[in-house]
Amino acid sequence: MKGKVDVLKSLNYLLTNATLDVNIKNASEYTALDILAQIRKDVKNSNDIEKKLKEAGAMRGKDAGQSEWLTKKKETIMLVATLIATIAFQAGMNPPGGFWQDTSDKPSNKHRAGDAIMDYNYPHLYLYFIRASTIGFVASLSTILLLITGLPFKKRIFMWILVAIIWLTITSMAVTFAISIVVITPRVDREPISHTIGVAVIVWCSLMGILFLVHTARLLKEAIDEKWSRHLVTKRIKKINSLKSHQPI
Description:
transmembrane, PGG domain-containing protein, repeat, PGG_dom
């Protein structure tokens, strides 16, 4: 019992009174939590040690890699999100074709000054254009908000949410671009261009859908594996304690 207390006191002292990187990796790319998981059965107070390490921000090697990647790329992602938000805002404020400069009450060409010409010529495409640009704008702002609020992206669920929002942002801007190209293309060349863009959008959305499903499946698998691993460890500890309780003193 004394050894257990000494170990925890020493660990607590190191974590609170020293500047340590609890996620530093050894030559085999293992962190402290990875090593603890491998020798757990040989360490009596492994659960207490794991709890202390996690409270200090320790992570498994694969999770630490994701966190390090996000830390290094945070400024780049912020810059890209800001750029996309600017583009989406400009697209919404300046749709292809511009605005009517006059007001007309003619039944065949009724419009007001300031109305979008695209809404008059392509009402259905205009609705999709506005929806796509709005989604891209809001998603970009959401990405910026998530990055500046300091959410714990070492948690897989927050990382998954961030990736999903970035995918949504890029996809919505791709749709906005495709609609813009169709609208500004002369009618003579519109059919082949529309076909090409339609195929490109379908391929892009399919690729995004596949990646989304793969990452979702990966997230669920890691969560299930972690839960099952904890269950096995708890079961093993209970078994060891049960055997010890039946041993003669």
